[in-house]
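User: Hello! I'm new to structural biology and keep hearing that structure can be predicted from sequence alone. Could you demonstrate with Branched-chain-amino-acid aminotransferase? Please show me the input and the output so I can see what each looks like.

Assistant: Of course. The first part below is the input, the amino acid sequence of Branched-chain-amino-acid aminotransferase. The second part is the output, the predicted structure written as tokens.
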Amino acid sequence: MGFDEMDVDTIWQNGEFVDWEDATTHVLTHGLHYGTGVFEGARAYNTEEGTAIFRWEEHLDRLYASGKPYEMEIPFTKEELSEATLELLRRQDLKSAYIRPIAYYGYDSLGVSPRDCPTDVAIACWPWGAYLGEEALENGIKVMVSSWRKHSSSQIPTNAKTTGLYVNSLLAGEEARRNGCAEAIVLNKEGNVAEGPGENIFLVRDGEIFTPGLSQSILDGITRDTVITLAREMGYTVHDQAVISRGELHTADELFFTGSAAEVTPIRQVDNVEIGSGSRGPVTEDLQTAFFDLVERRTDDHDEWFTYV
């Protein structure tokens, strides 16, 4: 669905609410040329208690942390960004939404150094269903291991959500889609499993859950942390610093992706190899049910994770 088809008309930009079509930036913006921006993706869910943003504080904390390696000072407080986001949801009467805050070096000079460039900040919200398709949540998706590798944290900080780094994600994801897959899995420079282009990955074997650790050049996903927490509360053994080889993907009992956009999405096939029974496995279904029960507030657990509009 294109933005022009959605009932959204306002963006918050540098302290002001502006019409969607007027939220523009200069063609010589530093972030456009060098990828010097940081961003977040969060979801607001329609619950019986009203619209609620899931783990908004953690997303904001990560936004500010992402700017630190680039010496980017965000010229608004977290409280100001929170109030802007809540007001944006109210103004557009969005009961559920995807939320995209972004901070980037703006227009001043086009040397590689951004020291004279301002930091521009914007927030947009729009309705967005299941990232990989509604049917994917139940039936699972077909993926492939990409020929593109994930960059190492010794090259570029992998735990910062930097705009320019998603070129790597684009290459991997589009390669997968050209080959008839919904998504990719990327390996790190050592050849072990890192993550998806925009998702963390989990493997289930003999009832235990494994996911790559931060040393494997992954993003420390907030949905990843949520699923680890829920799984342990449900009694599962979770290995959250796992090193997973490519071959282990094919012999897994179950695989699934997590992410703010992807939520909890089963993987039914990797490189034309059927995973488990070739459909959503019981552990994945168990965790997926717990996740959606949580975010849609069918349970009172972890109310501290929600910011109500």
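User: So the tokens describe the shape?

Assistant: Right, they're a compact way of writing down the 3D structure. Reading them back into a model, for example: Residues 78-91 form the longest helix (14 residues).
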